[in-house]
Design a protein that fits this description.
Layout (H helix, E strand, L loop, with lengths): L5 E5 L5 H10 L5 E5 L11 H17 L4 E4 L2 H14 L4 E2 L5 H7 L4 E6 L1 H4 L2 H10 L4 E6 L3 H6 L6 H16 L4 E5 L7 H7 L5 E3 L2 H14 L12 E5 L3 H7 L8 E4 L3
Parallel strand pairs: 1-2, 1-3, 2-9, 3-4, 5-6, 5-7, 7-8, 9-10
Helix pairs in contact: 1-10, 2-3
Bound molecules: D-glutamic acid (DGL).
Length: 262
C-alpha cells in the first residue's frame, strides 16, 4: 500500500507549486499529477461544475490506485472537498487560503487575499474568514484573468503586471501588511509581486503547510513510503504538454509528462 502513488490534481499547472513542496519533503513518494488545463479556469465556474470536475479527476486517480489525494487547488478544495471526503475512502488533503497565520501576525490588522471568484464565494472560505479573521480587515480581491495568463505561460509580461497592479491597489489603499495567495497558480507570480509590493508587505502561500500535512496524514495511516529509492512521477495534461514541462523546471527531465484526454 505505501508504494502506491499519491494523486494530485489541479485545474492546470498551478498545483505543480504544491507538488514541488511535497516532492521536496517526501522524495520517496510516487505520484500521479493531473492538470485539467482544458477546463481552466475553475474559478469562474459554478460550484456544481467545480464539484463535477473534482469528481472526474478524483475517480481517474482512484482508478490508478492512488493511496491519498491532494486537491492542489483552492477552488476545488473550497467547493468540493467535503463531498469528496464523504464519498471516497482514501484520505484527502486540501488547500485553503492561509488566513490564519496572516491574521495572527498582522500588525496593521489588514490582510489581503488574492484568490479566484470560486474560492472567495465559497461557504468554506467564508467560515474560515469568520473563524480566523476576528478584529482583522480581510481585503478580498478576485484575480480574474490571472490563471489564464499563467496557463498560457505568461508570468512576467506587461499584461500580467498591469492586472496585478490593478488588483493590488485596493489592498494597498487599505494598508495590508500580509498578502495571502489563495490560488496555487499564484506562487508563480511571486517574483512580479515582489517588484510591485512594498517590502513591508509579506506574501504567504500554503504550499509548505500542505506538504507537512500530507506527511502527517501518510504517517497516521501507516502508508508513508519508506523505500530507499526516489519516487517515480507521472504528469498528465489534457492541454499543452510543453507549458506543463516549463513549470516543472529541473524536474521535467526526471518525470514522465504526457498528454491525456481525461
Ligand atoms: N489553482 C487553482 C486554485 O488554487 C486555480 C483555479 C482556477 O482554475 O481558476 O484555485
Amino acid at each position: 500500500m505505501s508504494k502506491l502513488p499519491i494523486g494530485v490534481f489541479d485545474s492546470g499547472i498551478g498545483g505543480t507549486s504544491i507538488w514541488k513542496e511535497i516532492q521536496a519533503l517526501l522524495p520517496k513518494e510516487n505520484s500521479i499529477y493531473l492538470a485539467d488545463s482544458k477546463n481552466a479556469p475553475y474559478g469562474e465556474k459554478s460550484s456544481e461544475e467545480i464539484l463535477g470536475l473534482s469528481i472526474k479527476n478524483t475517480e481517474y486517480l482512484l482508478n490508478h490506485n492512488c493511496k491519498l489525494i491532494v486537491v492542489a487547488c483552492n477552488t476545488a478544495t473550497t467547493n468540493a472537498i467535503d463531498y469528496l471526503r464523504k464519498t471516497y475512502k482514501v484520505p484527502f488533503i486540501g488547500i485553503e487560503p492561509a488566513i490564519k497565520p496572516a491574521a495572527l501576525n498582522s500588525r496593521s490588522k489588514s490582510v489581503g487575499v488574492l484568490a479566484t471568484k470560486g474560492t472567495l464565494t465559497s461557504s468554506l472560505f467564508h467560515s474560515t474568514s469568520l473563524n480566523h479573521g476576528e478584529g482583522i480587515e480581510i481585503v478580498e480581491q478576485q484575480g480574474k484573468g490571472l490563471v489564464e495568463l499563467i496557463e498560457s505561460g505568461e508570468v512576467g509580461n506587461e499584461k500580467t503586471r498591469q492586472l496585478l497592479q490593478e488588483y493590488l491597489r485596493p489592498m494597498l489603499d487599505k494598508g495590508i501588511d500580509y498578502l495571502v495567495l489563495g490560488c496555487t497558480h499564484y506562487p508563480y507570480l511571486i517574483p512580479l509581486l515582489k517588484e510591485l509590493l512594498p517590502e513591508s508587505v509579506k506574501i504567504i502561500d500554503s504550499g509548505e503547510a500542505v506538504a507537512r500535512q500530507t506527511k502527517s496524514i501518510l504517517e497516521q495511516h501507516g502508508i508513508l513510503n519508506l523505500s530507499k529509492v526516489n519516487g517515480k512521477h507521472q504528469f498528465y495534461t489534457n492541454s499543452n504538454v510543453s507549458v506543463l514541462k516549463r513549470f516543472l523546471d529541473d524536474h521535467r527531465n526526471s518525470v514522465k509528462v504526457a498528454y491525456l484526454d481525461f
